[in-house]
Amino acid sequence: MSRRPGDASAMSAASSAPLIACESVERTYRRSTGRFRRAGPEVRALDGVSLFVERGEILGIVGPSGSGKSTLLHLLGALDVPTAGQVRIRGQDTAALSARGRRRLRQESVGIVFQRFHLLPALSARSNVAVALIEAGHSKAERRSRAEEALATVGLSDRADHAPGELSGGERQRVAIARALAPDPDIVIADEPTGELDTATGERILDALAAVAEDRAVVLASHDDQAVDRADRVLELRDGRVNGETEG
Ligand code: ADP
Ligand code: MG
User: Distance (Å, rounded) from C-alpha 80 to C-alpha 107?
Assistant: First the structure.
């Protein structure tokens, strides 16, 4: 996909900072319990997590179920804000932005791939990708051509007219990756993207993700080792804390 190196927003004062900076981040959830939905005990999903991700890097996040991987990815993708500490994306403190400002930041900078593909069943692969471009204000013709370009990147040009129900699990996930990439984000967040797929199909998905990392930052959560092999660095979470970091 073509990049826009001269893009004015990429030339901001923050351009030398890491794409993602996460410092001493904490995220607690308050559970409501009982008939009257009283505030229950606090769950500390993340506790003192710090990390940086640079352009061109794949950061793997591993840890057992419940260790805080999804919570962390939501913060790194500006879908959520920390209860303490700071997350900066391209130099912007996500908690200092309004909800609207965060949505804009996500639109401009973040592509997200979920474990369950979240495709719209009634739409073709091409339209599933093209809808991701509506908010950015592209013309219909441009949405279509960008969607086709993104599908080509993941090797699905020949399936553009097919609905999700006519595609295999791996093909659906590739559509979801194309959808995340179509707006040309600097950051790609993938939360257990191979969790629903067999090993061989998962390998292909990871190849597709690794191929886009070259000039972006990719953060990839996984509960198995398969994804870890592709990462440049791997951060291990345990009970919301960083248990260790290894070079991939
Ligand atoms: P993982 O993705 O590694 O399985 P999560 O980030 O989903 O872990 O969850 C971390 C912890 O936070 C778990 O104890 C989970 O039950 C809790 N948690 C996650 N989301 C919520 C929520 N919306 N409300 C309350 N607790 C939550
Ligand atoms: Mg999770």
Answer: 14
